[in-house]
Amino acid sequence: MRIRTVLDDLVPEALGVTDAHDHLFFRSAVLPGQELDDEAAAVAEVRAFAEAGGQAIVQWTPHGLNRQAGLLPGISTSTGVSIVAATGMHRREHYPDGYVDKVQDQLAEIFVRELTAGIGDTQVRAGLIKVAGGFHVLDVHAELVMRAAAEAHHATNAPIAIHHELGSAADAVLDLLVDELTVHPAAVILGHLNRFPDHRVHLELAQRGAWLAFDGPSRANNATDPRLTDCLAALIDAGYADRLLLGGDTTTARARAATGEGPGMPYLLTHLRPRITRYFGADIADAVFRNNPARAFATDWRA
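Structure (tokenized):
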């Protein structure tokens, strides 16, 4: 089992303390003027995360949204922080008009190539497939992308991470990916569940064997902060501490800690980790930030 980083493939135990969902570079048509496109700012943010004890960052920025794959190895080397890059595709509205239509028939091929050969003209390989659901349902675009992701997963064994719009439709994603397209649930990471803080839904998802990612704090909040520990407590009490992941999901320049208003990547370790340790104990905190990511992003790569 290995975790594919932008430098090399790591044994899982080498990953260390991990921000399981974040962005160093990101450009979206729905966030004009807030692009993450400054290399110096990205380096400063990663260094701040490292100073707080961080050792690895999983960047969920998918195909076509300014991943800056060519810069990631240098940032990883200069900061000592491992970085996992993503392939995949976001919701249609994040792309310029016409872009999705040009590539939608080639998605599985693109995903496999970026996982096995390199992103663009680089030799930087992606380590996961990031896709996105719709609000409460899977629209035509979401289903198309997820079918391509499942095809790429079966070709490579890469994990699939899902953006759930406001935390919704995670059950529909499992119905499609796991039940219909036979992706193993342990290869599926359900993101943004903090934005839909229904404990019963979370428990049902956990029972189906997927990873549960709480990707906050976000500047959009959506009940993330005040209800996060309650959501985690319900899952921990039910025996699912070994399925939980936490990430910062910094998607705008304003949300960076080093060069913006924050909270940014370091917040996970300067604020959330002490709180989780205080409420649930050091073993749970170690599971969420170290042991679980090492298992969630590791796979037996086929290429």
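The chain has a mean pLDDT of 93. The first strand starts at residue 3 and ends at 4.
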